[in-house]
Amino acid sequence: MGDLRITPLEGKTFGATVTGVELRTLSSEEFAAIRAAFLEYGMLVFPGQHLDEAASADFGRLWGELEFGGQALANQRKHKDGSYGEIYDIESQLMRTNVGNEIWHTDSTYKPLSSKCAMLSAVIVVEEGGQTEFADQRAAYAGLDEATKKRIAVLSAYHSTNYSQANDIGDFPQSNGEGVYGTVYHGEAYLRPLVKIHPETGIPNLFVGRHAFGIPGLPRDESRALLKSLIDFVVSDERRVYRQEWTPGDTVFWDNRFVLHRARPYDYSKPRYMIGTRVAGDPATELAYYPEDPRAEAGREALAAELEILRNEVKDRRYGATTAAR
Ligand SMILES: [Fe+2]
Asked: Among 30-39, 81-90, 151-160, 256-265, where is mean pLDDT lowest?
């Protein structure tokens, strides 16, 4: 092997920096070392890779089936000739979705199949803000008291982006949208255990985040309080939280099965351009159920009831219980 170096993040329970390797031209030995580091550290920072859309998707494909590959996760349009254009309006659904992702989450828990892992590569970064933060739900689970572990062992929560957008920022996206929104704001809610046994390491971790609501068997206020307390606990110890200050060319790759993340705010009138790739989970371990499954009806009903309540509760939040005009 060449000069590949894996350096654990100092003072953190997770994460490592990987240098001395080109993600575009990995040898099988290098990939094996990165895969082992991914399972051990959960989040890998690769400085100076300068991946484009195709290279981002290619790296993603090494890990499994893509949800999407080499997609712009940006606040501005990129033209076919490679030049950058219009910055999106903060009222648009695209920007509402970006703003929603400033709250802790793991990707695609609101889909039948939640995500295995994902990556971000920085192209255009802002000078202030716009970082991405990560948090370790594996170390958090290990740090819970026994009574809490026992209490949550049998509990699950529904996951929905219609819920999280409404609850976090007062946004009520149209559920019948086209394209990416059709697959994101669909009116379904998927039931997932609060404790996930990691399918590759066998280590249990918390599995919570902004999309989770409505723990069956608990009154609404208790469910909300418990879910909030668990997320608060994860991020209450700075050893479990890492902030990526982006430099163009950086790539960060993480395990969505135990690592939470969130974007940080910035001046949305300034261009910020990231390339994202997301890998689907394994149906054996990341599938809740499909919409046609009879179990889906309970989630649909729980979500509809929750949104009804939120309509009145979130008028003071960022988007004031409105729907984007476009
Ligand atoms: Fe995300």
From this structure: 81-90
Q: What is the pLDDT of residues 187-244, one digit of tens each?
A: 999 999 999 999 999 999 999 999 999 999 999 999 999 999 999 999 999 999 999 9
Cα of 135 from ligand 1 centre, angstroms: 12
- How remote is the CA of residue 3 from the centroid of ligand 1, in Å? 31
CA 262–ligand 1 middle distance (angstroms): 6
Work out the end-to-end distance of the chain between its first and last CA atoms, rounded to an integer number of angstroms.
51
What is the spatial distance between Cα 217 and Cα 240, in angstroms, rounded to a whole number? Answer: 30
Domains of the chain, first to last: 5-313 (3.60.130.10)
Which residues make Cβ contacts (< 8 Å) with residue 196, sequence separation at least 6?
Answer: 204, 205, 206, 207, 257, 258
Name 218's Cβ contacts closer than 8 Å, sequence gap at least 6: 155, 226
pTM recorded for the entire structure: 0.96
6-30 pLDDT, tens digit per residue, is 999 999 999 999 999 999 999 999 9
Got the DSSP string for 97-163?
HHHHTTS-B-TTTTSSB-EEEEEEEEEE--SSS--EEEEEHHHHHHHS-HHHHHHHTT-EEEE-HHH
Phi/psi of residue 10, nearest 5 degrees: -70, 130
